[in-house]
Amino acid sequence: MKTEQKIEIMAPAGSFETLTAAIQAGANSVYFGIGKLNMRARAAANFQLSDLAKIIKICHQNKVKAYLALNTLMYDADLVEVKKICVRVKKLGIDAVIASDMAVIVYAHSIGLKVHISTQANVSNFEAVKFFARYAEVIVLARELTLEQIKKIINKSRKEKIVGPNKKPIGFELFVHGALCVGIAGKCQMSLALYNHSANRGDCFQVCRRKYKVTDVETGAELVVDNQYIMSPKDLSTITVLDQIIKSGVSVLKIEGRGRSADYVFTVTKAYKEAAASVMDGSYNKEKISQWNEQLKTVFNRGLWEGGYYLGNKLGEWGGAYGSQATEEKEFVGTANHYFPKIKVGEFFINSGGLKLNDDIIITGPTTGLMRTQVKSLFVDGQPQKTAKKGDVVTISLEDPVKKSDKLFVIKKRNR
C-alpha cells in the first residue's frame, strides 16, 4: 500500500528528558500535562505551569506541535485554574488542548484555542463526532472500537463533510501503543473506592496491576485461575496492523506513556515513525515488522497485545507478571561531569555498580534527551582500563556532547 496521506506521530512527554527524546526520535507532535489537572498527575515526572513557555519554545524551534492535556474530570473548584491555564497557553501559542470535560472544551473553544477531544470522552459513534466537531479540530476515537467501526465513522464523517471550527475536515486520532486500563476509556473507580484517589483525576493507585485471588464468599472455595494478574491487561501494540489503521483514515497516531522514561519514548516513537513512513512508501513488510517488534520489547511493557480491540478481540490478554516484561533493563552507574568537544570525550563519576569495556550504555538528560552507544575506550584517572568501579572518575569516547549531571546507565539483557 502506497499513499500520500499525511500521518502525524504524537509522542508523550513527562519531563524535559522525554521531550527531547521524542523530538530526537522524529515525533511530529508532543503531548504533556502540567500539575494535577491531567490524567498522569500521579506520575513521578510532571511539568509545572512555569515550564510551559520553555516546552512550547523547544517544540516550535524543532517544528513539532505542542499539545497540553487538560483531560481529567473537573470540579467547580478547578475551573478558575483551568481558565487561567487556557489563557496562559493561548498567549504562549500552544497548538491545542486535549480535553474530555465539557467545561474545559467549551471554555477553550470560546477563547479561540484549538481543542482535541480526549479518549476519556469515549467517542464511539458518528453522532458523537458530529456533536464534538462544533468545538474540536481533532477527535481521539475510543480504544474499544474495531477497525471496521473506525472506518465507518471516518467514512461517514467525510461523506457528510463534517468540519471542525477551522472549517477543515475533522481529524481523527487513535492510540496505537501503550498501557491499557481494565476500565472502558480508562473510567475506573477501583482506586477511588479503595484509597479515595480517583483515576479520573489522574491519581490512579494502579490497583488493577496487583495479584488477586478469586474466592467464593459462600463456601470459601478458591477458584483456579491460570493468571493471578486478572485485571492487568497487556499493553496495546499495533505495529503489526499499522497499515490497516492508516488505511482506515486515521491521521494522528498517538503513543501512551507520559510517565515513562526517555528510552521508552525514544524507542517507541522511532519504531512507529519508521513504520508509518514504511506504510506510506509501500515498503511495510513482515521482516520490518519483526524488527520493530523486537525493538518495542526492549523497553517497558507488560507484554504486548497485538492489534487490541481494533481487531475485534475481547479484552483477555493479561499481563501475567508485575511490572515490566522488557527484554532489556538499565542500571544506573554514574553522572556526567564534563564533555571535551575537541577530543569528543565525556567524563563521568561512577556512583554505583561499575562500567567495563564494550558495555552498551545510554545517557539521558534534559537537553541530551537519549544517547545510546557502546564503551569503545575506557580511561580511569587518565589510564586505559578494562573496568571501572564505584568512586572512579572515567572518560569515554562520545561522538555527541553530554551535559553536567546527565545520567549514565548500563544496558543489560533481562533475566526472565
Short description:
By secondary structure, the protein is of the alpha/beta class. Helix content is 25%, strand content 23%.
Question: What's the arrangement of secondary structure elements?
Answer:
Layout: E1 8-12, H1 16-24, E2 29-32, H2 52-61, E3 65-69, H3 79-92, E4 96-99, H4 102-110, E5 115-117, H5 126-132, E6 138-140, H6 147-159, E7 171-178, H7 190-195, E8 235-237, H8 242-247, E9 252-255, H9 262-281, H10 286-297, E10 304-306, E11 328-340, E12 345-350, E13 354-356, E14 360-365, E15 369-374, E16 379-380, E17 383-384, E18 387-389, E19 393-397, E20 407-413
Parallel strand pairs: 1-2, 1-9, 2-3, 3-4, 4-5, 5-6, 6-7, 7-9, 8-10
Antiparallel strand pairs: 7-8, 11-12, 11-20, 12-19, 13-18, 14-15, 14-20, 16-17, 16-19
Helix pairs in contact: 1-9, 3-4, 9-10
Account of the 3D structure:
Helix content is 25%, strand content 23%. It is built from ten helices and 20 strands. It has an eight-stranded parallel barrel with strand order 1-2-3-4-5-6-7-9, surrounded by four helices. An eight-stranded antiparallel beta sheet has the order 15-14-20-11-12-19-16-17.
